[in-house]
């Protein structure tokens, strides 16, 4: 901890406002590697801010993380000694204040600057407050300069304009070309839609839509998944009766497509290798009309309870939560004993940047390489468990060929007893075709990009075991 932070602890006003709460949350995300959504949720619960202030704090946390590279590019012009040499809390205060000046209009400019200066004075000393004042006033005076660079290499230009690390943009350009890469970057900066998966065992999509409308929420069909709805202006959906009563779940649209593509049938023996918190396990069980067994395994014992709670909420008795390393599932399940195995693998999460913007700054190429090795081990462990004629479905919420297409190609080279299976349910294929999300020569694996449905960037591969 730096001296400035010590001082800030002594002087902080007892009631933290929206900006102070946002600053503290950003500090914990940066320093402790905390997840922004969890950290913010915890802070908001403790603070008891008014609804508008809670909304402002939320916007400040996500927006500042999202636009970090763009903000730093601009701030670099006004901070004489260089941003890197500032104490973390000062750098974050400048970022969040500039974010507010450029991207938000609820608070007048003079008030944003005054509040930033007051906060700097409470936490630091007069010199820091003066510097914050000077930087923000310069930025306001030279507002016309706060634009993205026009020239330069595409990766560098997009990285600054959309605020991403250059290595990531370069990768997406290499894989998809500059235009698609820009669309991925832009989609990652848009808020994710509030999507709902209707529990079709407890009612129809139309009935849920009606119920939501009666409580003031408009919801439209999600398009790709027959059970999916997108709600507008919904606030915290987990607070609604329909959620508590298990009439629906909160799930990303891309995530919903995994169980749809897996196409489980009633009475099957199914294993979900990495299951917590149970989103896909419960979806599989719903599609099986709760007949058969869905073994929902996860490495972490404390997550078993999360899976059980979801199954209970949805009225599902076929989900059996178990705990263990997916690399050692051969010790629990006999070879060839399962009709369907889902490996929704731990991954770099580059497809969920619109939910967790810090992923932009916390992940590195080395993480991608390391996770690809883990996924390879988990795939090899899952493969023998599937019966001949059965299915292995592999999915991730990332956009990285090493973890996705190349991972599956390497798996097929090691396992000639498997083949990709493009015979996904026809309604799903039709919806993907309509959205132009299906490659011309669809072989059985799909990289869903976040700009298609506003979903997470998801990868799904469906494989069939042909022989022993
Ligand atoms: C992508 S999340 C799964 C999300 C889940 N399928 C859902 O839809 O709700 C990956 C999960 O893998 C678990 N995990 C990580 N390493 C594992 C391992 N070696 N064995 C089993 N589970 C693991 C994590 O605890 C995490 O819950």
UniProtKB/TrEMBL annotation:
<comment type="similarity">
    <text>Belongs to the class I-like SAM-binding methyltransferase superfamily. RsmB/NOP family.</text>
</comment>
<keyword id="KW-0808">Transferase</keyword>
<dbReference type="GO" id="GO:0003723">
    <property type="term" value="F:RNA binding"/>
</dbReference>
<dbReference type="InterPro" id="IPR023267">
    <property type="entry name" value="RCMT"/>
</dbReference>
<dbReference type="InterPro" id="IPR001678">
    <property type="entry name" value="MeTrfase_RsmB-F_NOP2_dom"/>
</dbReference>
<dbReference type="Pfam" id="PF01189">
    <property type="entry name" value="Methyltr_RsmB-F"/>
</dbReference>
<keyword id="KW-0694">RNA-binding</keyword>
<dbReference type="GO" id="GO:0005737">
    <property type="term" value="C:cytoplasm"/>
</dbReference>
<keyword id="KW-0698">rRNA processing</keyword>
<feature type="domain" description="SAM-dependent MTase RsmB/NOP-type">
    <location>
        <begin position="184"/>
        <end position="466"/>
    </location>
</feature>
<feature type="active site" description="Nucleophile">
    <location>
        <position position="397"/>
    </location>
</feature>
<feature type="binding site">
    <location>
        <begin position="274"/>
        <end position="280"/>
    </location>
    <ligand>
        <name>S-adenosyl-L-methionine</name>
    </ligand>
</feature>
<dbReference type="InterPro" id="IPR006027">
    <property type="entry name" value="NusB_RsmB_TIM44"/>
</dbReference>
<feature type="binding site">
    <location>
        <position position="344"/>
    </location>
    <ligand>
        <name>S-adenosyl-L-methionine</name>
    </ligand>
</feature>
<comment type="function">
    <text>Specifically methylates the cytosine at position 967 (m5C967) of 16S rRNA.</text>
</comment>
<keyword id="KW-0963">Cytoplasm</keyword>
<keyword id="KW-0949">S-adenosyl-L-methionine</keyword>
<dbReference type="InterPro" id="IPR029063">
    <property type="entry name" value="SAM-dependent_MTases_sf"/>
</dbReference>
<feature type="binding site">
    <location>
        <position position="325"/>
    </location>
    <ligand>
        <name>S-adenosyl-L-methionine</name>
    </ligand>
</feature>
<protein>
    <recommendedName>
        <fullName>16S rRNA (cytosine(967)-C(5))-methyltransferase</fullName>
        <ecNumber>2.1.1.176</ecNumber>
    </recommendedName>
</protein>
<dbReference type="Pfam" id="PF22458">
    <property type="entry name" value="RsmF-B_ferredox"/>
</dbReference>
<dbReference type="Pfam" id="PF01029">
    <property type="entry name" value="NusB"/>
</dbReference>
<dbReference type="GO" id="GO:0008649">
    <property type="term" value="F:rRNA methyltransferase activity"/>
</dbReference>
<feature type="binding site">
    <location>
        <position position="298"/>
    </location>
    <ligand>
        <name>S-adenosyl-L-methionine</name>
    </ligand>
</feature>
<dbReference type="GO" id="GO:0006355">
    <property type="term" value="P:regulation of DNA-templated transcription"/>
</dbReference>
<dbReference type="InterPro" id="IPR054728">
    <property type="entry name" value="RsmB-like_ferredoxin"/>
</dbReference>
<dbReference type="InterPro" id="IPR004573">
    <property type="entry name" value="rRNA_ssu_MeTfrase_B"/>
</dbReference>
<dbReference type="InterPro" id="IPR049560">
    <property type="entry name" value="MeTrfase_RsmB-F_NOP2_cat"/>
</dbReference>
<keyword id="KW-0489">Methyltransferase</keyword>
<dbReference type="InterPro" id="IPR035926">
    <property type="entry name" value="NusB-like_sf"/>
</dbReference>
């Amino acid at each position: 901890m730096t001296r400035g932070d010590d001082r800030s602890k002594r002087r902080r006003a007892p009631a933290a406002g929206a900006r102070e709460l946002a600053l503290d949350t950003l500090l914990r995300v940066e320093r402790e590697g905390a997840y922004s959504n969890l950290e913010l949720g915890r802070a908001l619960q403790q603070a008891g801010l008014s609804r508008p202030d809670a909304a402002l704090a939320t916007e400040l946390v996500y927006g500042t993380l999202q636009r970090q590279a763009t903000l730093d590019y601009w701030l670099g012009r006004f901070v004489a000694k260089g941003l890197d040499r500032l104490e973390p809390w000062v750098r974050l205060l400048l970022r969040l204040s500039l974010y507010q000046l450029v991207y938000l209009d609820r608070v007048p400019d003079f008030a944003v600057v005054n509040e930033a200066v007051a906060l700097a004075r409470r936490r630091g000393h007069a010199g820091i407050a003066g510097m914050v004042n000077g930087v923000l006033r310069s930025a306001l005076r030279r507002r016309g300069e706060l634009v993205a660079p026009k020239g330069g290499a595409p990766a560098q230009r997009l990285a600054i304009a959309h605020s991403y690390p250059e290595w990531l943009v370069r990768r997406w350009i290499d894989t998809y070309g500059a235009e698609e890469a820009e669309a991925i970057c832009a989609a990652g900066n848009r808020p994710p839609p509030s999507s709902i998966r209707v529990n079709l065992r407890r009612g129809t999509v139309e009935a849920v839509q009606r119920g939501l409308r009666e409580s003031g929420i408009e919801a439209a069909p999600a398009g790709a998944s027959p059970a999916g709805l997108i709600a507008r202006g919904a606030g915290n959906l987990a607070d609604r009766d329909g959620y508590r009563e298990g009439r629906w779940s909160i799930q990303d649209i891309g995530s919903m497509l995994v169980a749809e593509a897996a196409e489980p049938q009633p009475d099957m023996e199914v294993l979900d290798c990495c299951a917590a918190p149970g989103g896909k396990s419960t979806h599989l069980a719903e599609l099986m009309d709760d007949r058969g067994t869905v073994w929902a395994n996860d490495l972490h014992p404390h997550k078993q309870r999360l899976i059980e709670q979801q199954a209970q909420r949805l009225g599902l008795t076929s989900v059996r939560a178990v705990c263990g390393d997916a690399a050692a599932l051969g010790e629990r399940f006999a070879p060839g004993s399962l009709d369907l195995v889902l490996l929704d693998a731990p991954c770099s999460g580059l497809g969920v940047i619109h939910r967790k913007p810090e992923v932009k700054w916390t992940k590195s190429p080395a993480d991608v390489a390391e996770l690809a090795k883990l996924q390879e081990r988990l795939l090899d462990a899952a493969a023998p468990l599937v019966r001949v004629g059965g299915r292995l479905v592999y999915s991730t919420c990332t956009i990285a060929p090493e973890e996705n297409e190349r991972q599956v190609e390497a798996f097929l080279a090691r396992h000639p007893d498997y083949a990709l299976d493009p015979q996904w349910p026809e309604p799903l294929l039709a919806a993907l075709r309509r959205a132009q999300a299906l490659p011309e020569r669809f072989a059985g694996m799909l990289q869903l990009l976040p700009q298609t449905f506003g979903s997470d960037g998801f990868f799904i591969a469906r494989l069939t075991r042909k022989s022993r």
